[in-house]
Amino acid sequence: MRKTLLYISLISLGLAVELALLESGKGIVAPPAVGGEWQMQVEGECAELRSPVMTIDQTGPRLEILISGMQKLNGSIARNRIAAAGAAPVRLSATSTGPSLRGRIQCRRGAVSFTAERRRHE
Amino acid sequence: MNELAITLLQIIVIVASGRAMAWLLRRVGQPAVIGEVTAGILLGPSAFGLLAPDLFARLFPPASLPILLALSQIGLILFMFVVGLEFAPDLMRGGGHSVVVISHVSIIVPFVMGTALALYLYPRVSDQSVSFRSFALFLGTSMSITAFPVLARILAERHLVRTRLGNTAIACAAVDDVTAWCVLAFVVMLVRAGNPTHLAVRIVLVAAYVLLLVFAVRPFLARVVPAIERKTSAEGVLAFVLLMVFVSACTTELLGIHALFGAFLAGAIVPREGTLATTLVTHTRGLTAVVFLPLFFAVTGLRMNIGLLQDRSLWICCGLVLLVAIVGKVGGAMFSALKVGFSWREATAIGLLMNTRGLMEMVVLNVGLDIGVVSRGLFTMTVLMALVTTGMTTPLLDRVLHIAREVERPGEMEAVA
Predict the structure, then answer these.
(1) DSSP state, residue B328
(2) In which residue ranges of chain B is pLDDT below 70?
(3) Phi then psi for A56, rounded to 5 degrees?
(4) B376 touches chain A (CB under 8 A)
């Protein structure tokens, strides 16, 4: 009898706390989702970007960006704005609008604009 | 090099390094699974990819990974079938009320603590493609796992299976396993269903499928299998059962829960009368353990990347995941064990044993990554947590039990049979 009461009280308390926690978390906002594979369209000359596929690995607001032919970039997303940089002076900035990205990337000969469409979600 | 040669080379490297690490870590008293998981992590981008990026890119070119992933999934389906085959409902009845209290409290405490941690982690390691509810429920589930096979092996190696402590721990782990799979199945359905109507339909369909297996397929197998055993060869029976496993895995995948649940259910309904279950375990376990599971660990290692934990705040998140997992599981199990009448030392030992997450945690985490509810960063943190919680079990348990043996009072660790 004592064990049954103990069981019922502990489990009901646990469930009540669980429901309260789930309810309280409803208002928390996570960063926009940009993780996955993106097909880039470069507007201008950039020799490094021959078949530009951009892979973004996202952990919360932190991003690891791999673009074929270029070095790895580390960056972040705040609201819907992406900013990333590599070891050499390679920089990327973009704005996310859900299924597409629009921004600029620094190539050896200067910065070029690009758009990107999502190929695969992370 | 062509695709087949690359795949074969990958298998050679993975199996050989897995065996070597398992052998090495067994020398220091760790379960083989720790060595195999460590080998998988070392072969991934966190170590091998960092130290020799060119060689890593040659051995694991991105185009070859789908083949490795498919092989590891098939291996995991076979492994879950073996887990189902070895599932013994009798064990759950072993310790009566005490077992139910300890196992369920040791699930709900880390689950609730995991949900509380989700309030902090959600904006830091997740994104808007995952709802808070799915994220929190999944994190809670991953915190509340206990690895029944590893726990059973640890107890057997220490000759503790037939003690009150061992009996209770095994029974609790069995209850934990079943409860955790049910909760995970619900979370996967919740994530995949999208809206409440789809979720309700899926729950009804899955419940109907489980009832069909238990009340129609199981009795049918009990009648038909002896006849098949008499008429065909062992290979014929194996082919029949494996077909059933893949059909069941495919069905649960189509029903919106993971294929692994179907494989587990197929194993669980195989009749225990006669020699069929034992024969199937013998036939499937060896190849699964030696070849397929190391492939799964390597895929896990390839999917995690310690380099993603770029700054101190992510390492703080990782530390919190570890802390909550240990405090929740050890604390929950210990507290409830004390409340149902175990001594401090026995309660501590039960808490430590229930904290063993091992392979089961890896399975759950990979499911989370497959359905997109965990990011690769969180995946990395939770794999590290699984490794640490499993690795800490044996040294701490030996310490606690050594002290306990020195001061053991009569009757404290008595055998139950």
Answers:
(1) H
(2) 91-95, 403-417
(3) -110, 125
(4) yes
Alpha carbon distance B193, B398 (integer Å): 45
**Partner-chain contact A59 B104, CB within 8 Å:** no
CA A44 to chain centre: 26
Residues of chain B neighbouring A4 (CB-CB closer than 8 A)? 97
pLDDT digits (tens, 9 = 90+) for A106-116: 887 788 888 89
Query: What is the C-alpha separation between B25 and B230, in angstroms, rounded?
Result: 44
Measured CA to CA, the distance from residue B276 to residue B226 in angstroms comes to 9
Give this complex's ipTM: 0.89
How near does any CA of chain B get to the CA of A36, in Å? 11
Residues of chain B with Cβ-Cβ distance to A60 below 8 Å are 123-127, 375, 377
Mark yes or no for CB contact B128/A34 under 8 Å: no
Cβ-defined contact of B123 to A29 (cutoff 8 Å): yes
Contact A28 B122 (CB under 8 A): yes
Element (H, E) at A66: strand A62-67
Summarize pLDDT for A59-74 with one digit per residue, the tens: 999 999 988 777 788 8
Looking at this protein, which amino acid is placed at residue B221?
A: L
Element (H, E) at A119: strand A110-121
First to last CA, chain A: 51
Cβ of residue B61 closer than 8 Å to a chain A Cβ: no
pLDDT recorded at residue B91: 64
Close Cβ partners of B363 (under 8 Å, ≥ 6 residues apart): B76, B80, B260
Q: Token pair of B394, please?
A: 């044996």
Cα separation, B79 vs A15, in Å, equals 32
Which residue, among A12, A13, A15, A21, would best test binding to B if mutated, counting the most B CBs under 10 Å from its CB? A21
CB within 8 Å: B375 and A60: yes
Q: Which pTM does this prediction carry?
A: 0.87
Residues of A in contact with B120 (CB under 8 A): none
Residue B415 backbone dihedrals phi, psi, to 5 degrees? -75, 150
Please give the pLDDT value at position B215: 94
- CA pair distance B122, B130, nearest whole angstrom: 9
pLDDT digits (tens, 9 = 90+) for A29-47: 999 999 989 998 888 887 7
Distance CA A29, CA A24 (A): 12
Nearest to B166 by CA among B27, B338, B352: B352
Average pLDDT over residues A76-86: 89
8 A C-beta contact, residue B179 and residue B140: no
Give the Cα separation of B144 and B100 in Å (integer). 15
Q: What are phi and psi of B272, to 5 degrees?
A: -85, -15
Mind giving me the DSSP string for B287-299?
Answer: HIIIIIHHHHHHH
Q: Which residue has the tokens 């070095």?
A: A71
- Residues of A with CB below 8 A from B116's CB? 21
Nearest by CB: B126 against A24, A30, A57: A30
